[in-house]
């Protein structure tokens, strides 16, 4: 026979965990980070999922040449992703293994060297 009191407690705990997960999803989804290249010639913005939501490029950045421009856009995007990673880490601090798993997911998505070296001045 099932103990209804224990079942009720389990259902309450599950409901609380679901509500906490929904709040976390909403918090992470609301995040946004912006990064600007040295000199301010390129600005990128990413949303809480790491999607590029805004890209601004000055005429002087365009005049710098295709390879230079491409590199700096990608570098600035990676800097915005690194900032997002830091914000996710702050948001999930104190969540134990669940928070660590979320941060690992963002780390994997950012990937590579996230140094702040810029070549457009």
From TrEMBL:
<keyword id="KW-0238">DNA-binding</keyword>
<dbReference type="InterPro" id="IPR004401">
    <property type="entry name" value="YbaB/EbfC"/>
</dbReference>
<dbReference type="Pfam" id="PF02575">
    <property type="entry name" value="YbaB_DNA_bd"/>
</dbReference>
<dbReference type="InterPro" id="IPR036894">
    <property type="entry name" value="YbaB-like_sf"/>
</dbReference>
<protein>
    <submittedName>
        <fullName>DNA-binding protein YbaB</fullName>
    </submittedName>
</protein>
<dbReference type="GO" id="GO:0003677">
    <property type="term" value="F:DNA binding"/>
</dbReference>
């Amino acid at each position: 026979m099932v103990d209804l009191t224990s079942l009720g407690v389990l259902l309450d705990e599950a409901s609380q965990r679901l509500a906490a997960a929904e709040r976390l999803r909403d918090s992470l989804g609301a995040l946004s980070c912006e990064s600007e290249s040295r000199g301010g010639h390129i600005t990128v913005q990413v949303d809480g999922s790491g999607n590029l939501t805004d890209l601004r490029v000055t005429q002087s950045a365009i005049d710098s040449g295709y390879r230079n421009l491409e590199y700096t856009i990608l570098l600035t995007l990676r800097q915005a992703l690194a900032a997002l990673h830091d914000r996710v880490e702050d948001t999930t601090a104190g969540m134990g293994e669940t928070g660590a798993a979320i941060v690992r997911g963002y780390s994997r998505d950012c990937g590579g060297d996230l140094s702040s070296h810029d070549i457009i001045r």
